[in-house]
Design goal:
D-amino Acid Aminotransferase, Chain A, domain 1; 494 residues; 20 strands; eight-stranded antiparallel β-sheet; globular; Dna Ligase, domain 1; alpha+beta; five-stranded parallel β-sheet; 4 domains; Rossmann fold
Length: 494
Amino acid sequence: MKKVLIANRGEIARRVIRTMKKMGIQTVAVYSDADKDAPHVIEADEAVYLGKSPSSESYLRQDEILRYCKELGVDGIHPGYGFLSENAAFARKVKEAGITFIGPSPEAMELMGDKLSAKQAVKSYDVPLVPGIDRAISDVGEAQEIAKMVGFPVLIKASAGGGGKGMRLVQNIEELPEQMKMAQSEARSSFGDDAVFIEKFVTKPRHIEIQVFADTQGNYVYLFERECSVQRRHQKVVEEAPSAVLTPEIRKQMGEAAVAVCKACDYVGAGTVEFLIDADLKFYFLEMNTRLQVEHPVTEEITGLDLVEWQVRVARGERLPKLQDELSINGHAIEIRVYAEDALNGFTPDIGNLKRYRIPQGEHVRVDDAFEEGMDIPIYYDPMIAKLVVWGEDRAAAIANTIKAIDEYQISGLKTTLDFGKYVLKHEAFVSGDFDTNFVKQYFSDPQVIRTAMEEEKDALLASVDQIWNQIEINKRKEFTSRPVHGAWKLMRS
């Protein structure tokens, strides 16, 4: 593999380019009108224009991407995440064009892309499933009978869904008909498929996922877990690895279950198996993401591995660089997604210009970002500016290091989720590890309380800065009075 086209944009495109350069592989970037001056375009060896800013007119233009691949002699495509990364039809076109798709097979994507088919596939491998049904339903009467059998509360979920779309929590039988109608309508408009199913609602659920890898030679490994329970609108905001609650025994059980999911669909490449864990630490298969995850850096930080490099090696037909008994966890890592959002206003996008942009530095600080100072955040795509990833020798050190890095991050011109990230890291529930996917709902639902907490934090920081400057002035005066006249004159002039 000598030349790879990265069918994506932003921080993930830059992150893939870094590994390709390390491996001596040439890169081709793609861009839209909104991204013509973006860092990923400048950093690639070549760049080609796909179209106007909306993704439907640029980053989702499959045939245009393949045309450029043929023109430029591209022999591999890395899809990143989002856009075409889990599009089985695109992966099939890539394969038919004689180009290597750096990801799983179209068949594995199709099987795992539908929640119902995924449930059916893993059932014979004894992977724990949330109580419910593994087939689509459309009749309200049947749905009510199933809900009675499962026991309220229940979740109505879109079979082809993701990101919380087509999902409804139902507390009692009276509200089920209306909630089911709404779930089907949303699923139809979001995915073109109104198939829904019902499963038991897990109380105090934690969202924990397992990073998996498989090669073409029958080797499978799990690279431990990531805790992703701090979410807003079913989207992750803070992630960490490893989880604060898993015992080595449960970690092994979940890892082996994740590998079983891989075997159920003849998986090859990088994937993530997502689980729900209840208050008793019982885990249940949720779904599989057949791509590299946004939060993969925390896994890289605790394992010392480059997962993009692994993807390329597996795509070239090589054996996995390490097998299970060669893998271990070293320390703890935390990722804060830095979104251009107003956390105190329901996490609404706050698109604007990065008037000031300075990233934190440090031995254990990593920033995967997509922008530079003075750039505008486009309205057409996800409003993520960067991922702040910090490592520590243990969880307490990682939390402390991340808070320090947040304080050093300088962004002006728009609101970001950095303050929210700091609020999470300092909250007693997070520090103790006693939290679940309801964290935002439980502790971040009263804007006035949160605003007061954040203002107190800022006041304390300003007071600390004032104290430092006062001490500097005192030291200067002491130095002035202790110096000879010519030294004092030099000090005054400086």
